[in-house]
Amino acid sequence: MTANRDPGGPPPQVPPRPRVLLAEDYNALLVALRRLLAPSCDIVGSVGDGLEVVDAAARLRPDVIVLDLNLPTLNGLEACRRIKAALPRCQIILITAADDDALRKRAFELGACAFVLKHRVIDELGPAIEDAFHGGDTAARGVQGV
Fold first, then answer.
1. How far is it, in rounded angstroms, from Cα 91 to Cα 4?
2. Is 1 inside a domain boundary?
3. Has residue 7 been placed in a domain?
4. Is residue 132 in some structural domain?
5. Domain residues for 36?
6. Are 52 and 7 in contact (CB under 8 A)?
7. Which has the closest alpha carbon to 22: 38, 40, 51, 45?
8. Do the domain assignments include residue 145?
9. Which of 15, 110, 127, 131 is buried deepest, with most CB atoms within 10 A?
10. pTM for the whole thing?
């Protein structure tokens, strides 16, 4: 018998965790992303190319997709477009090494909610996922978002 819990009261509420799909073709970074995000997210899958992420998104229906811009078979921008057409509520965060304003603008036009540079992933990706999951403003934290 637990002394601190009211037996007639509701069970304690566990806050929901974002269901995240990772799309990155560089395996070492994929492993690092899993380790970085596992404490705060449910990683529902990981894939290494653009066609796989479109398929996995349809099957797994994640809350958030962390999507590398430069994937084989289908680039991240086209994958983003296809996913948003099929799953408009899915939040997509593009990650890239390229600090390019034209790419950033195009990503947002196609429905991405944030654009995180790979060298800033450690500091910015977790907060960007939380903001996307809870409907917050990623731009307020300095992440390149809408």
1. 39
2. no
3. no
4. yes
5. 19-136
6. no
7. 45
8. no
9. 131
10. 0.86
Report the number of distinct structural domains present in the chain: 1
Q: Which two tokens stand for residue 56?
A: 């996995």
Tally of residues, the chain: 146
Q: 12 phi and psi, to 5 degrees?
A: -60, 140
Neighbouring CB atoms inside 10 A of 15's CB total 5
Bridge pairing between strands 144-145 and 114-117: antiparallel
Residue 69 dihedral angles phi and psi, to the nearest 5°: -70, -35
Of 18, 19, 21, nearest to 95 (Cα)? 21
Q: Which helix (H) or strand (E) holds 67?
A: strand 64-68
Closest-CA residue to 146 (of 100, 90, 92): 92
pLDDT tens digits, one per residue of 92-128: 999 999 999 999 999 999 999 999 999 999 999 999 9
Q: Tell me the C-alpha to C-alpha distance, in Å, between residue 101 and each of 107, 108, 115, 142.
A: 10, 11, 10, 15
* pLDDT value at residue 60: 98
CATH of the domain at 112: 3.40.50.2300
H or E segment at 53?
helix 50-60
